[in-house]
Amino acid sequence: MPEGSLCNKKPVDTAEGVTTLLADKSGKTYYEEMKSLDVDSDLLWKTIQNTCKSRMRTWLEICAHCGMCADSCFLYLANKKDPKQVPAYKIQSTLGEIIKKKGKVDNAFMLHAMEVAWAQCTCCNRCGTYCPHGIDTGIMFGYLRGLLYQQGFTPWEMKIGAGMHRVYNAQMDISSEDYIDTFEWMIEENEDEWPGLAVEVDKKNADIMYTVNAREAKHYPEDLAEAAILFHVAGENWTIPARGWEQSSLAMFAGDWAACKMQVDCVYDAMERLEPKRMVGTECGHAHRATVVEGPYWAGRKSGRPPVESIHYIEWLAEALRTGKLKIDPAKRIKEPVTLQDSCNYVRNHGLKKIAREIISYIVEPGYFIEMCPNKEHNFCCGGGGGFNGIGYFRKQRNVGLKIKRDQIIATGAKLVIAPCHNCWDAIRDLEEEFDIGIKWSFLKPLIVKMLIVPDHLKPKEEDE
Amino acid sequence: MHALLTGPFFYGSFGICVIGMIVRFYQYFNGLSWQLDRVAYKQYPAMGFRGAVRSIYKWLIPYGTYGWRSQPVMTAAFFGFHIAVVCLPLFLLGHNVFLKEKFGFSLFTITTPVADFLTWMALVSLAFLILRRLILPEVRIMTDKKDWGVLILSLAPLVTGLLTRYQIGDYLFWLNAHILTGELVLVAIPFTKLSHVFLFFASRAQLGMDFGIKRGGLKGSKMAW
Ligand code: SF4
Ligand code: SF4
Ligand code: SF4
């Protein structure tokens, strides 16, 4: 059977398609069908010829097979230094082989390549900074994912995720109405405590257009409330777009470049429609990477920039704390050992290390903050990046991958891990579940809301006045 | 034989090497694509240039990067070998006498004891690199015939050079062998992994531009190579 009914080369782009895929519990049939999915070698080779240019070809060619990148990969370390986990080996034995064979590879090879691409690399790009030749294996894995996706060899959740973006312009089945309803519901819930709390949808020329990760609307609506509260207290002129509110991109993890473009186009449209001064995105690493760092290129923007200045939540937060728009009550600062998870996606890959530490300096009592080792650009991936967290088929491998972060956290002695990234947050929650090391983990928003000095005029009025 | 090696063979191999390098350099930079690589190379030339230079020079300094510092012994061997194989062919007295004769100019030269030291340093370092390749599982798993080919190819001029230097056996034979293997290396440079002698700069420059322009450079954060 060349093309399955669920597992095939066609991306899902209808609501029914997504529902049918979802109904196949854990992708049982999907993965069964994948075992007999044909490889379209001509298409594969043609795509490579058109898209694999000098940068990657040279990387593959000049790799000295020196193994200097081995220790830089957390998955190599987590898997007891299994030589099969050396970054250069992983990419040479997959993408390298496909190119050597001019695309003439079989089903078994592709199944294996899929496992390597999604379960042996999180595209954290750490190895790229440890290779003397500047060979960034993470980038090549991103590329390989695209090739595999085109051939239908992609994990079940990735196909669904990319499909969601195609259908809903969001990583989950949430319509614009659902999103706005949820946001407004959260405002109502908190109005009593925060008089005047409001959200305006589609306001033009606001100072800030706020974008989120769809899971906030679906599973963690309090995150939306906290964002609203912080903007409210800071006195910001902000808005949310009715369309183009989703910043995250499972399509990027899936390697569905067309869906990536659709997704960011939708956000950039909102920017062009509402003309805000800036866009602020939520506390998510890959969402920032997708919409701010990589997105402009998918959208074909020569400047490499989104239509309006776009910043990560921690950049806005640091600025609000620095300028005094938000004030922290010194008595409420964190007074227990605390550490910070640097997200690869905006620290290693977008240089926000100082900003993250500036926030720490405002909210942690001096002496209580302990850096992980290594940290900043050299920090290890949380263990669940690049979609790894979400793939049931590779759960075992993911849990092994969590060990490095577990040991890093234990070594700090911290009781609280601040993780301003959805994926990192998930991975750290899962590692606590899996290994029970007795830590708490948190985004920044809930911590800050609890520490604020609230100006009198924003406090609820006394009952009998 | 000697006349052939020092005449047409020399000019030929030298020409192939230089032209090959130029062509491949051109192909490399011509093949960079802002949209496929997702780096707006042309939009931010100053930041790109700064990133490229930084990424190259940091890695040229022994222990100048986290990567180098994380593997001190390997780094010593690596630089031991590379410093020698860059300096020896360029600055050896004999080579410069030859150069003067062929092209009418010569470069700075090193004294014989220095040259001996460099050669032995290169050999010891190379021996270490070979041992490493044989022993460490993370290196062994990737090592293929081409890697050995390149190692043997770079070893050959060193060994023949030493035999000539100490005049062991037939001097003229070893001298010719030395010249021939040296010329083989020249010819091999553009077509094999030895292309890294110049593509290293291209590849490092690219990643430097990538970080300088896109991944944090414009946020004022230098990549900590
Ligand atoms: S990717 Fe770089 S560090 Fe890794 S083996 Fe190749 S050349 Fe060495
Ligand atoms: S990008 Fe990260 S996970 Fe992937 S091979 Fe490199 S270090 Fe390992
Ligand atoms: S989840 Fe966080 S740490 Fe892991 S790859 Fe993504 S950003 Fe990096």
Overall description:
- The complex is a heterodimer of chains A (465) and B (225).
- Helices cover 50% and strands 5% of the residues of chain A.
- Chain A is built from 21 helices and seven strands.
- In chain A, the strands form two sheets. In chain A, strands 2-1-3-4 form a four-stranded parallel β-sheet. Chain A has a three-stranded parallel β-sheet with strand order 5-6-7.
- In chain A, helix 1 runs antiparallel to helix 9 (156-168).
- The termini of chain A are far apart.
- The model of chain A has no long low-confidence stretch (mean pLDDT 97).
- Chain B has a single domain (2-218), classed as Transmembrane di-heme cytochromes, Chain C (Fumarate Reductase Cytochrome B subunit).
- Chain B has helices at 2-6, 8-30, 34-37, 45-60, 66-70, 72-91, 93-103, 112-135, 137-140, 145-165, 171-191, 196-214.
- The longest helix of chain B is centred in the middle third of the chain and has 24 residues, at 112-135.
- The model of chain B has no long low-confidence stretch (mean pLDDT 95).
- The interface between A and B is large, with 55 and 59 residues.
- The structure holds iron/sulfur cluster (3 copies).
